[in-house]
Amino acid sequence: MDSGAAQRAETEPGFITGDWGTSRLRLFLCSAEGALLDTAEGPGAVEAHGRHAAVFETLLARWAPRCGELPAVLCGMVGSNIGWSEARYLPCAAKPDQIAEACVALQEGRIRIIPGLSCRNRYAAPDFMRGEETQILGALILVPALARGRHLLCLPGTHTKWVWLEDGAVVDFLTAPVGEIFALLAQHSVLVRDRDPEQCVAGEWFANGLQAFARLPGAPLLHRLFECRSRRLNGEFTAQQSAAYLSGLLIASDVSGALHAFSDPTARRTVNLIGAPQLTDLYAIALGAQGGTTTFVDGTAAAVAGLAHVHRLLA
Length: 315
Known about the structure:
Blueprint: H1 3-11, E1 13-20, E2 24-31, E3 36-43, H2 52-60, E4 72-76, E5 90-91, H3 96-101, E6 104-106, E7 111-113, E8 117-120, E9 126-129, H4 132-142, E10 150-155, E11 160-166, E12 169-176, H5 178-188, H6 204-215, H7 227-233, H8 239-261, E13 270-275, H9 277-289, E14 293-298, H10 299-314
Parallel strand pairs: 1-4, 4-7, 5-8, 10-13, 13-14
Antiparallel strand pairs: 1-2, 2-3, 6-7, 8-9, 10-11, 11-12
């Protein structure tokens, strides 16, 4: 390929990818080489219910006329039972090519929807993910070493995922609804009432929550949560400090439980974090406090790389 053709391949639209979650749709216009050219945002799967095709085509209009004919790969809640078309969960262990092969085709194959994954987790309970599998695929591309040997991944979020990889295959995973529990307690309980939701929960009081958990690691989390209220009543905490302390307790408990569940003497105790920096930073601090080391992959970059990889596998 001459230099002019190579430059065109890097800058001309080649395909479209999208992460269509519960509350937000993010579309990415990519070159044939997988470079990100432009982005667009729209309503999530819940708001778009019953009109997914119309929402998708409306967003493509900004990239018209040629882009309306480009192939597209979508992940997330778009493949759920409230989405555009259900892409059933693929049971683990699951390899990248198996995930691509299980995609659901729409519009005569122009659009593909990536399936979620299912497993029996370390506690013999059913577990599910939808959307995170694409970030995992992207991490395998961005960090090729993850495709060899055994690795523990952590994808922090509303429902944090702890994922066990063996030679690039997702063997099993464990979900902890840390973000959801924090939001519920912060918004609907007296524990951290009156806090400013715009202020960060990191810092000294987050570290205090980690340290409090470390002092009594065997104490049930339920027996510690009311401290967030009682220490305010005692004048030790402000509302914001109480929220940071609560976050520290929750994340420390999650980390401790996951490291115990996924303990493996043949694997290094390095956790590969995938997600937004404001969340992965908190988990990196908590893991460091419990003797773990971490690596980091940006969640958006991983999602785009994973979607592009599925496109290449399908092509």
